[in-house]
Structures are given as C-alpha cells and as structure tokens.
Amino acid sequence: MLRVPGNEEKNGFRYAFRTPTPRPPTALQDKFKDPTSPFHLPPGTQGPDSPDPLPEELSPADEGRARFIELGYDPDSFWEQPIVWGDHDSFQHVNNVRYLRFLESGRIHWMRALGHELGGPAKADAMIKGKGVSLILKSISLDYKRPVVYPDTLLVAHKPHPGPLHTSSNVDSAAVNTKRQAKTHFHVMGAIWSYAQRRIVTESDSVLVWYDYDKLAKCDPGEEARAVIQRRMDLGKPRGSL
Length: 242
What we know:
Layout: E1 8-10, E2 13-15, H1 27-33, H2 60-70, E3 79-82, H3 96-127, E4 133-144, E5 153-161, H4 174-177, E6 185-194, E7 199-212, E8 217-218, H5 223-233
Antiparallel strand pairs: 1-2, 3-5, 4-7, 5-6, 6-7, 7-8
C-alpha cells in the first residue's frame, strides 16, 4: 500500500513508498508448525537426515574410466598420459601432433595386453619388438574436439571394431555389429579423456594389420588371435546382441 502521508519530496521529486507484502506460508511450512501434524517440528529443532545417502562424486580419473567402460572401450587399453609444458605450441595449447604420440603410447600398452593373453610375457615382449606375428599400423584419422592445456592428465582408451570408420557414439550400431571381423586386419577406435575438462577431447579411428615380421608380409594370425580381438569387440554390447 502507498504511504499517505508518506509521499516525500526531495530535490524536486516526489517519492511514494510501498510496504512489502509478506509471502503466504506454504502448506508444508504450515505442517511443520502444526503440533497435530506428523511433520511437526518443535521450535529450535530440525528434521531427520535423509535416509538416502548422498552420492559420492567420482574423481576425474574414475569418471573417465566409467565413461569409457560404458562406451565399450577395453579396460586393458587404459593409459594415463600426463601433459607437460613442452607439449604446448605457439598457440598455447597442446600441439595436434602430440595426440598421435599419446595414442601410440596407449596402443602399444594395449598390444602388450593382447600379447599377454595370447602367450604370456614372452609373447607380449615379442608383440612390441616386431618378432613373429604382431600388428602394424596401416592408417589413422583424428577428430579434435577441444584443445588441451597444461596442467592436465589424459586417459587414452582403445576399442577394436570391424569398421568402417565410426565415432564413439555409433561404434556399437547395428551397421557395425553385423559386419564380420576380417582375417588380416581390424579397425580400432581411440578416445582421449581430459581430467581437467572431464570430457572426451579427441577421438581417432585406425586400421591395424596382422603382420608377420619374419616374412615381412601381412598374414592371417589364426582363430585364437581373432577370438581375443572379438571378445574386446563385444565389450559393452547388450547380451542379446552378441
């Protein structure tokens, strides 16, 4: 309401003041104050704690791992890559070429895991030293989504699939799942998660070829090797689609 007298004049201007209207109490507030209500809270007290525990916030590392597992990436491929100041270029972000190295480090780490499954430590060592049957990179493409700056730590992950080139969002689509694994090669989806940004900042797709380093020729690695890859292709798929 307007104050009457209450109109005040100052510097040639007339001011009218309005008294604030109090907000009506809510129905729940009324129940808190009503002694006959089961929700009554005596003055000076507070309600009980929630029976549901508060969700624990994941660390950036755990969040990245959980996201990659949800997308079907192979946990054996997870590789942490610290960012150093020297990774920057004159544009003050991590140089694009560095990501090829990060993905290479993750890929070699993953190849060692494949070797361990195929033949223990000796095979894992041979896989990365070009002895006998191993893998060789045929091609790779990168999709840069967001720049990365120091300081940060990246999580690199890989997942094989039959191809052709796809992104993380559709690598498990029917168009991919209905294709059979080729005998001499397969595609590998790669992704890089930023702990600082808590999101995927780069994706890649590559083709790896089974290669006999003794004969210097691509080869068929056999059913056991293809089964090892197939198990990883099936990660994250619904049971009904296997």
